[in-house]
Amino acid sequence: xxxxxxxxxxxxxxxxxxxxxxxxxxxxxxxxxxxxxxxxxxxxxxxxxxxxxxxxxxxxxxxxxxxxxxxxxxxxxxxxxxxxxxxxxxxxxxxxxxxxxxxxxxxxxxxxxxxxxxxxxxxxxxxxxxxxxxxxxxxxxxxxx
Length: 145
Known about the structure:
The protein is of the alpha+beta class. The protein has a domain of 69 residues: CATH 2.40.50.140. Helices cover 26% and strands 22% of the residues. The protein is elongated and about 80 Å long. This is S1 domain-containing RNA-binding protein.
């Protein structure tokens, strides 16, 4: 029996590591279920979800040239398939938005000189406010006792 990408198979957990679980497939080959493919929720400890010799249904998600087989328990679940088909068929259509041309002169008559003078005025006001607040607190070089 050949392993085909996307096929669902019954297997048995043969080993558990901190990064995933190894599953023996019916054809006698072993594949890996990565920790991120075990459940729909965050999996901190694989032992809370799987035990050695547990029967599992897996989906083949990757077959490398060197023989490594990537499996997923999460994608083999029926609710995952329903969610995936719903996302594909019920994707909302969005109209393309018009881009605003910021450099257009009709949108704004503010020149560089106007922007520069506004910046200098704001900067001067902030510096004066800072100096006033430092004077009230004692600021730099105040008396130390």
